Amino acid sequence: MLKKTIALAAGLSLLTGCIASREFESLNKTLSKGTLLVRSLTVSNPQDGNTKVTNFLGWISLSGAAPSKLERFDGITTVTLTGDLSKNSYPDEDSPTNDLNPGQNYLYTLTFAESTATQSITPALLPDTRLTSNEPNGTNVAPASSPTLKWTRSGALPKGFVVTVARMSDDPNGGFGGGSLSGGTPTYIAFLDAASHSTEVTYGTPSDLAAITGDALLKDSLKAMPGNFFAEKNEALTKGIYAWTIVAIDHDDAKTAFAIDKPDSLGIFTVQ
After folding, report:
1. Rounded to 5, what percent of the chain is helix, strand, coil?
2. Is the dihedral of CA 58, 63, 69, 75 positive or negative?
3. CA-to-CA distance for 103 and 181, rounded, in angstroms?
4. What whole-number distance in Å separates Cα of residue 235 and Cα of residue 144?
5. Which residues have a Cβ under 8 Å from the Cβ of 80 and sit 6 or more positions away?
6. What angle do CA 175, 178, 180 make, to 5 degrees?
7. What is the side-by-side order of every strand in the sheet holding 106-111?
8. What CA–CA distance (Å, rounded) separates 31 from 88?
């Protein structure tokens, strides 16, 4: 999947203008030794509120030779990353023993037999956007209906939103609170273009944020997160208690660094 993405990116770079044969020859020599691309995703996990950074690295080598070493430099310390470098990709993930932070610039160096390839990335900060779930909240809706979900926003309009509706425990005193959906089972999740859905969306509306829906790497990575709170979904509403929330998505202009905010508040409604 990542190899296809990288190959496509390399191909597109050749189609953006007329490239002289001398320039193409130079590019071909560079690729034969190795080239490196980096993507980044910063996500606040809806289950525990912890922020996690993952930098996705991918490379191509027309010679077929695998790199021998991958290093990360944060401006102070150089870390040699361990793991399998034979698959043309490597996920550099934030963990208790591998600290990655939003807003920190990282320079990666990939060493081949005859050369090195370098690329830097700055993981995006969480969007400074505060969203409040307004409607429905404390109301009843009919089974199999498609209520309009409405919210208010303070701050700049982000690139997009993630709307999540989850069926909660039937116990009205348990299973959720604050901005947490950890006790629920998602029934509707969509990535929305903020330009088209700035304050509301109808339940069941398909995802239309092209920067994510058209990117298999990001979609699969989000889908794999615990709780399935970022896996697109659309199920009919059945009788029960539901909670929903809306969070902001931002990315840089080059679409290389993405960030997804944490829930700020919940809307609660009953299907009966």
Report:
1. 15, 40, 45
2. negative
3. 27
4. 9
5. 69, 70, 71
6. 55
7. 78-80, 69-73, 106-111, 116-121
8. 13
Q: Are 92 and 100 in contact (CB under 8 A)?
A: yes
Q: Kindly tell me the burial class for residue 188, based on how many C-beta atoms sit within 10 Å of its own C-beta (0-12, 13-18, 19 or more).
A: buried
pLDDT in tens, 82-98: 989 988 899 999 999 99
Reduced to 3 states, what is the DSSP secondary structure of residue 10?
A: helix
Residues 19-55 pLDDT 10s:
333 433 444 444 445 578 999 999 998 777 789 999 9
What CA–CA distance (Å, rounded) separates 162 from 219?
12
List, as own/partner pairs, every contact residues 14-22 make where C-beta atoms lie below 8 angstroms and the sequence separation is at least 24, other chains included. none
pTM strictly above 0.70: yes
Tokens 């609170």 belong to 177
Of 125, 177, 201, 189, nearest in space to 156 by CA: 125
